[in-house]
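**User:**
My hope is that you can spare some time for a protein that puzzles me. This is the protein in question:
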Amino acid sequence: MFRALSLRRAMHSAVIVSAVRTPVGSFQGSLSSFKSTELGAMVIRGALQRAGLGTTEVGEVFMGNVVSAGTGQAPARQAALGAGLHNSTPCTLVNKVCASGLKAIAIGAQSIMCGSQETVVAGGMESMSNIPYLLAKARNGLRYGDAALQDAILCDGLNDAYDNVPMGMFAELCAKEYGFTREDQDNFAVESYTRALRASQ
């Protein structure tokens, strides 16, 4: 556990020098042959190329990922090595459901601001098409009766762990409770894209 200590030192500024994403794919669509770690490697490689940075200039990698089942050990490291980064580069995976990639970016920015790193790669990677089904209790032996497969997309990704309710239902309840209309949500989305476009120019 840590507590804040007030120091009279200026913080460093963190700036985005490159931003890359894969095309938007659909479930079981044209990108479904790529694992999340492979998609992550593609965007890391692309971001470095656009920024004109070499693989040895990256001090640390932070990648968000919601459902890591079946991707193999240390997915962030897989993506970094797949992009050609050195195997001595520290890599961290962040799991914060839908905010995983954004939280990874926040952690990356904070590491620059506090002076821990000068250059980081941060983002998110996911491939819902490659998330497996799980067979609960199989490790202890299924000795009698039927056994159901669990879809890891639901149990590890989209369903609330406490009430087993799809997250989309909470969005509906939030909109109803606070009076967010579809028009409000569309305007918010347009403003978000407008800001992102403005920031990239």
User: Anything to note?
Assistant: The longest helix spans residues 182-199. The chain has a mean pLDDT of 93. Residues 58 and 119 are 5 Å apart (CA to CA). The beta strands are 60-64, 91-94, 120-124, 133-135, 149-151.
